[in-house]
Structure formats: structure tokens, C-alpha cells
Write a structure and sequence with these properties.
Blueprint (H helix, E strand, L loop, with lengths): L7 H5 L3 H20 L3 H9 L3 H29 L1 H21 L3 H29 L3 H30 L3 H22 L3 H7 L8 H9 L2 H22 L1 H6 L6 H27 L4 H21 L5 H29 L5 H8 L2 H18 L2 H22 L2
Helix pairs in contact: 2-6, 2-7, 2-8, 4-5, 4-6, 4-16, 4-17, 5-6, 5-8, 6-16, 7-13, 7-15, 11-15, 11-17, 11-18, 13-15, 14-15, 14-18
């Protein structure tokens, strides 16, 4: 019997379908990040849009993806994961190809929205598959952590690959991304053909209509509190990518771009190389305890950002270290808790609604920009620390 949650022996026992899902997650997220970080540059270079308009367009696309996940999550409960995975993969692939032919801001915006919706649909449905096919709770927890880990690996290597390829032929990168998503969607479509019918026959109850299902999910008090915590935590963490660059650019740092690249690289290395060793140390503690201390580390990181002079590299590095360790503890726990709280017949709807955390990511730049203009960076970080404290209190009522 395998007792440890985070072990290679337990990972090897996961079903073949889940191994394919996890490997596909690595490939698709790498492909996604080959393009996504550079979209703002394309909009500026090709269409000469202002920073505010570019930020608004990308934020609307992200919010649209989160909102669409609510309905598509219910569709996966009603019509099966297999169809929704194929739909999300093909929508993403077609949207990547649309970038090649987009000759106006309108069609470029349509492509951005298509990628956001398709990738959001694919990501949430793949998480649902883990719950469908992995019965053992410890193995399910391991699979969800592995999924988060591979998303981070993709987010680390994708921009590097994209930077190298985009310097030569941009259309080739879009075509490669489209191919990756198409192959992944068709592979899962074929692999799940026989097993999905058996999973659906074992469902505890038929799926109600959308409004009834959505209302039932929102009435689930623990889940709604958990979703609020996840959204606020994502709001806080997103400031590292969206607001910290502005904060450094407005400071007296001589080379803010180089400093930012170093901090982002440090964040990626910590998340990729320390996640599983750290989790093996923490697995004896409850998820509530892990979430509490993860949020405490994120809170401490914001206070260190607020108190460190921007010219003090080691202060910024310490804040990044605390934020990165807190992140890798906190965010997988939300997926695990959603999986535990979800009703079997509404698992897709629960994960679809949980994707609303992306609204926090989309709104974070607005908060950051406003606070920098009004009161400065120090009070901005103190406000984010206060939000971390709020999550630490509320999570006690949401997490078992």
C-alpha cells in the first residue's frame, strides 16, 4: 500500500488517461505562453494601440474566458467531458490560426478572446477529468498538484521558446500552437471514447438544467467562500506580473527591465524546483493548515515589498521568495478543495464556476495602477497584505 501522497510510486498508479492529460497540459500551456506574454507587444507594434486600450482588451478577454467557463462547465456535465475538450482544443487552435490572418484590431481581438475562452474551457475540463478517473483521494491530490506544477513549467519555458521563434517567423509560432492544441484534443477524444460512457453511467444523479445547477453551486456556502478566497489570492499574486513592473519602472532603479527579468526568473525557478520537495515536508499537515501558512507567506511578501527600498535587491529577492513559496502551497489547494466539495453530477459546473478566480487576475492591474497614481507603491503593497489577511480569516470557514 502506498502511504505517501507525493511519491513516484503513487504517480505511476494514475490511469493512462490522466498521464496523457498531464503531459498534454505541459505541451498546451507551453504553447499558450509562447504567445500570450507577447500579445501586448504585437498590439502596440502592429496597430499602435495605447497601453490603456491594450490592457483593457486583454483584461476583457480574460474575464470573458472566466465567465464562459461557468456555462461550458455545465455543458461538460450535461454532454460529457470528451466533447468539451475537443471543442476547447479546436477553438484554441482556430484562434491561433486567426492571428496569422488578422488584418485589423477587431479580428486580432476576436482571436485573443477565442484563445482565452478555448484555453479556459480546456483547463477546467481537464481538472474535472482527474476527479472522474482517479478515485483515491490522495492520488487525486497528487494529480492536481502535478497539473499545477506542469502549468508552471509551461509558463517558464513557453516564453523562452516563443522569444526565440518569434524573432524569425511569427506565423510559424502560431501554426505550432494550433497544431499542439489540435493533436491534444483529438488524442483525448479518441482515448476517452469508451471510458467516458462508463463514467457517466456511474454518475450519482442526472444533470439539472443550467440555472438550477448554477443556483445549486452558488448556494453551497463553503464553495462560494472558497471561490472568494481564490479570487482574492489570485488578485494579490497577479500584482507580481502586472503592477510590480510599473512600480519598478517609476522608481530610481537604473535598469528596471533587467531587475524584473531576474525576479521573474527567480519566481519560476522556486516554483518549479521546490514544489514537490516542500509538499513532501508539508503533507502531514491538513490542507487548512497549509493554506493558512501559504497565505501568511504571501502576506509577509507584500510587507517586505512595501518596506524594502527598490534599490535593495536582496529585499526584493526575499519578497519574491516568500511570494513564490506561498503561491506553490496555496493555489493547488483551491483545486483540491473544489474537487472535494463538488457534487459528482455537477463536478464540471463547480470547476467552471471556480474559474471566476481569473476575474481577480484581470482586475489586479486596475487596482495596481490606481494605487500607484494615488498613494504610491508602499500603500499598494500594504493593501494587498490586508487582503491576504482577509483570506486567512475566511478560509477557516471554507476549507475542511
Amino acid at each position: 500500500m502506498i502511504e505517501r501522497t507525493f511519491s513516484w510510486a503513487r504517480y505511476a498508479t494514475l490511469p493512462r488517461e490522466i498521464h496523457v492529460v498531464l503531459f498534454g497540459t505541459l505541451l498546451t500551456r507551453s504553447a499558450f505562453f509562447m504567445i500570450w506574454p507577447f500579445l501586448a507587444i504585437f498590439l502596440y507594434q502592429d496597430y499602435h494601440l495605447g497601453a490603456t486600450l491594450i490592457g483593457t482588451l486583454l483584461a476583457v478577454a480574460m474575464v470573458g474566458g472566466a465567465l464562459s467557463s461557468i456555462y461550458t462547465g455545465w455543458l461538460s456535465d450535461r454532454f460529457g467531458r470528451r466533447r468539451l475538450i475537443l471543442a476547447g482544443a479546436l477553438l484554441s487552435a482556430l484562434s491561433f490560426l486567426l492571428f496569422i490572418e488578422a488584418g485589423s484590431v477587431f479580428w486580432f481581438g476576436v482571436a485573443v478572446a477565442g484563445v482565452s475562452i478555448g484555453c479556459s474551457l480546456l483547463e477546467s475540463t481537464c481538472k474535472v477529468l482527474i476527479g472522474d478517473y482517479v478515485e483515491d483521494l490522495q492520488s487525486r491530490e497528487l494529480a492536481l498538484y502535478a497539473n499545477y506544477f506542469l502549468v508552471n513549467v509551461g509558463g517558464s519555458i513557453g516564453p523562452l521558446i516563443g522569444m526565440l521563434l518569434l524573432s524569425s517567423v511569427r506565423s510559424l509560432v502560431f501554426a505550432v500552437c494550433a497544431l499542439v492544441y489540435t493533436v491534444f484534443g483529438l488524442l483525448l477524444w479518441r482515448l476517452l471514447r469508451d471510458k467516458e460512457a462508463r463514467v457517466q453511467r456511474h454518475a450519482s444523479a442526472p444533470t439539472p438544467n443550467f440555472l438550477v445547477a448554477f443556483g445549486a453551486v452558488l448556494k453551497h456556502r463553503r464553495f462560494t467562500l472558497l471561490m472568494l478566497c481564490n479570487t482574492v489570492a489570485a488578485f494579490v499574486y497577479a500584482s507580481f506580473d502586472s503592477t510590480l513592473p510599473q512600480y519598478l519602472a517609476r522608481s530610481e532603479v537604473q535598469d528596471p527591465v533587467t531587475l524584473l527579468v531576474i525576479l521573474i526568473t527567480l519566481n519560476s525557478l522556486i516554483v518549479v524546483f521546490t514544489q514537490f520537495p516542500l509538499l513532501r515536508l508539508l503533507e502531514v499537515y491538513s490542507t487548512r493548515c497549509r493554506l493558512f501558512w501559504g497565505m501568511a507567506l504571501m502576506l509577509a511578501s507584500q510587507l517586505v515589498f512595501a518596506g524594502s527600498p527598490v534599490t535593495l535587491f536582496w529585499g526584493l529577492a526575499l519578497a519574491t521568495l516568500l511570494l513564490s513559496v506561498g503561491e506553490l502551497i496555496v493555489f493547488p489547494i483551491f483545486s483540491i478543495e473544489v474537487d472535494r466539495l463538488a457534487q459528482e453530477s455537477l463536478r464540471g459546473t463547480y470547476f467552471g464556476v471556480s474559474s471566476l478566480y481569473r476575474v481577480g487576475i484581470a482586475l489586479s492591474p486596475i487596482y495596481g495602477g490606481g494605487m500607484l497614481d494615488l498613494v504610491g507603491g508602499q500603500w499598494m503593497f500594504i493593501g494587498l497584505a490586508a487582503l491576504c489577511g482577509l483570506v486567512m480569516v475566511v478560509q477557516n470557514y471554507a476549507v475542511r
